[in-house]
Amino acid sequence: MTKKILSWNANILFLLIFAGQYFYIYFVTSAKLPPFLGGYFSIACLFSLVVFSCHYFFLGTIKNLSRSDFIFWILPFLLFLLMVLIQLWLGSIYAAPGRDGAAYQSLNLLLYAFVLFVVGCCLSFSGRETLKLGKIVFFIMMFVLLSYVISTGSLFYNVGYVAKEAGLEESFGTYQTMARSVMLVGLIALIGITSPVLKVLWLGLLLFGLFVIGARTELYTFFAIIPLYVVLTMFNTEVSSAGKLIFLGLVILAVIFISLMLLLAQTSFDFNMRQFAIFSLNSDASWSSRLRLDDANTQFIVNNPIAGSHGSHFLQGGAGAYIHNWTSVWQNYGLFAFLLYVYMTAVPLIYLFFLYFVRNYRNEFVVIGICIALIVLISVSMSKSFNWEVTYFSWGLVTGLLLKRLTELRVSKATEVI
Questions:
Q1: Structure pTM?
Q2: How buried is 200 (Cβ within 10 angstroms: 0-12 exposed, 13-18 middle, 19+ buried)?
Q3: Could you read off the pLDDT of 211-236 as tens digits, one per residue?
Q4: Count of domains for the chain
């Protein structure tokens, strides 16, 4: 009963945090709601921390761990949080550049990282109620975008422009925030869909949502992991042989269809849209600006390779002037924090791959966990910084899957001995 309550709470919090922010931004920017919860995400995470997170992290997760599980999968995460806390403390003592702004970012990071790690670690979409709820929520999210496309005739939901038109700051709603919610809710809600036709349609709907929102990293990393999803599904023992063949055939047909449609539409389709800028990065202002910031901020790492330089990116232009990859962790929190960050991003994912292919730990939840973790690995190595919230949710999700399997193996081994 306790496990059921914990997983139910985690599922609800997952939707509250990610889907909740999506709808909040939409209704506020559409002038249907006042911005009474600020940016929403911090409030949702704080609520989760106060009401649930500590309870099921310490009573539902750590309580039943072996010493080796704690050392390899939980301790590195806690040490990472400790490194952030130490830099926050040092920054408050010394006149670090952008001290107040850096302190605010670090406090947010501590909150997001802990709450999202716990939610991901305890997440379980095995119950029918939560599976249905996730699917209903995702359909409503897609309906909102489809309504916008039909009413405006535009295939780009420029949430920043919509926010500005509503009299809000342009940064109130960002395409990265919207895409983050669509991607995670859509992928988790994919669990439980057994029909090959529905699987392909669901993936297509996810691609449509990410395309309309215009977040390039989320769109192209998701597109890149679709072949992996297909391969993992082919190995999944829960899927019948006929279902695997039908699914593979439909994916191939869908790729051919999309390719043909793009070729036929190239004379009338606007390929200068933000979504297609990846094919002409040399002339893209956003990409050029990122490269300049990365080069300038890397110098702080060179000058302070061990301790880093907490908040130094503020000298380059403000809160968003950080390195757009995982070395931003090195710059702000030092070498040890960076190594822990790389460890938590890569090692559990590699071990989960091992369990999937070698130890036959194969189910839909593991497939989705691997896909989300790989999206994170690609994204943080190329364009996402230390404050990308999806990273910490992914850490928790993969860690939870690993701990569940390792516990099952220990129980099975103990039973054999008896």
A1: 0.90
A2: buried
A3: 889 888 898 899 888 888 888 888 87
A4: 1
